[in-house]
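step: validate -> pass
step: tokenize input -> pass
step: predict -> running
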Amino acid sequence: MCGGTVSRGGIEVRSIACFGAVLAAVLLALPLSAGAQQPAQVKRPAPAPAPAARYASQRDTLNQNTVTVISGNPNGTYLYLAYDMSAVLDDGNDLRILPVIGKGGYQNVMDVLHLRGVDLCITQSNIMTYLKKTGEMGPNIENRLAFITRLYNEEMHVLAGPGINDVKELDGKKVNFSDVGSGTQFSTRLIFDLLGIKATEINVGQADGYQMVKSGEIAATVLIAGKPTGSFAKFKLEPGMKLLPVPYTEALEQDYFPAKLTSADYPGLIEKDRSVDTVAVASVLAAYNWPRDTDRYRRVATFIDAFFAKFPEFQKPARHAKWREANINSALKGWKRFPAAEEWLAKNPTQRSPTASVAIDPGIVRAQAAKVAPNDPAAQERLFQEFMEWAKSQSKR
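step: predict -> pass
step: emit ->
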């Protein structure tokens, strides 16, 4: 029982201790009913991801399937082909092609080997021969730099000023070899060396080079790119200016082949129905030869799957005309193919490229052979047959 009471102002109040004990006893005596007595569990929606987490997810998705292709500047053709890759292959989040303006041939190889974030490059096929010979990018370059496909022919353009009628007359003269690190600079050095031409090199853009030829400050400007090129297509001959022929000699046989520039290519530089003999080098799409168990290998392989599967789209009229010279099956002397590309071709033997890998006019070959050996029919025929056999081998795997 509780204790006594306390009188306050004439009212008896039971002690606090006694009241608490009674209340506790009453509560314990009440029946328990879970459904009636316990509060209902309310399901609350999961909190939305924090902005930082959402942005990180978007960033990872963008980077995971984006492939960068380092190309060239608007003077040549590389940039246009890289844009075509983006136009044909972009499909939202699964694959995105990011064209990057580059210096061209030589520098592009430097970038794909050493620059973070560069997956593919467009360069010239003769660079492999050069790098193996010089070793300037380290030993076993053929195991670090792999080709995906041969692309198209890059013709040599030599625009000379008054008084120059033969390319060999550029010996000792000041000549623009285009931008530093460009494929033009790289290949012009090699071709001039093989032809025995020792020119004084300067390096400016083609628009500047044209003005310097026009003013007589330099003897010629050179561009090696797929015809018709953006810059040369805008030029017009000033008095005394001319496109010089470049002879196809035996010394050029390993990495080059005969070609022709026509009035249809450059109506502002070549008279109607006339042409100019020259030489050309193959362009190539290449990549660093990543190990198979890397994300970079996966990204390049994803690109290859889409690129080869949709290759016929590149040879339709909406795309650059130079795509019609490309052949995904063509081998390249001295190069190894990226493994994912080799495997795709092995699994898809019926999907052959519809065009030959080298656009060859036998008449051009014979004409160039006659110039190389003007008084030796036997040597002319040997040169012709050797080159045609080489061209034939390029269309085979």
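step: describe -> The chain has a mean pLDDT of 82.
step: cleanup -> pass
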